Amino acid sequence: MAGGAADCQFWTRVVAKYCTLYELREKTPITVAAASKYFANALYEYKGQGLSVGSMVCGFDKRGPAIFMVNSEGDRSQLKVCSVGSGSLNAYGILDNHWKAKMTDEEAKALGWRAIMHATYRDAGSGGVCNLVHITPDSKIRYPGRDVSQLYYEFAQELGRDIAYEPHDE
């Protein structure tokens, strides 16, 4: 999620409550599309009221994997690749160059770490920790947060680049 922390926390709880009630009532998991549609409809009711929410609703349901982008205005789009927030352009630079339709779990995880690191490292409005969740048909694996600066140094070393400029005496 991206936007105002209070808005994001509030709406996450509202949508989670709705999804839980749906699953209790219907005795079946809610689809990603239905959860994102509810979220978009709820936000649309407050369109123009100053909410600040940009969100990805992601999951794996009976229809397969899905990613929806939902924003404060109640807009909702299904996407293959998504990034939200002030650092999203940096993430898209990585995703546009390295995302493939067929990737191994390890390739996808590495791409996720790299895209999130680039989204946060050069963006003062983003946090300093990369959080990653791997969603499969059977499970959701939440990886421990990783420090953005540490990831930056790891990726630079992997590419064989110096981090700091050191002028040479000539």
TrEMBL record:
Domain of life: Eukaryota
Record Pfam families: Proteasome
Keyword Cytoplasm: yes
Segments crossing the lipid bilayer: none
A Gene Ontology molecular function term of the record: threonine-type endopeptidase activity
InterPro entries from the UniProt entry: Ntn_hydrolases_N, Pept_T1A_subB, Proteasome_sua/b, Proteasome_suB-type
Predominant cellular place of this UniProt entry's protein: nucleus
Coiled-coil region: none
Places the protein is found: Nucleus
Alphabetic keyword roster: Cytoplasm, Hydrolase, Protease, Proteasome, Threonine protease, Zymogen
Classification via SUPFAM superfamilies: N-terminal nucleophile aminohydrolases (Ntn hydrolases) (SSF56235)
Protease recorded as keyword: yes
EC number: 3.4.25.1
GO cellular component: cytoplasm; nucleus; proteasome core complex
Catalysed reactions, as listed in the record: Cleavage of peptide bonds with very broad specificity
Subunit organization: The 26S proteasome consists of a 20S proteasome core and two 19S regulatory subunits. The 20S proteasome core is composed of 28 subunits that are arranged in four stacked rings, resulting in a barrel-shaped structure. The two end rings are each formed by seven alpha subunits, and the two central rings are each formed by seven beta subunits. The catalytic chamber with the active sites is on the inside of the barrel.
Protein name: proteasome endopeptidase complex
Higher taxonomy: Eukaryota, Metazoa, Ecdysozoa, Nematoda, Chromadorea
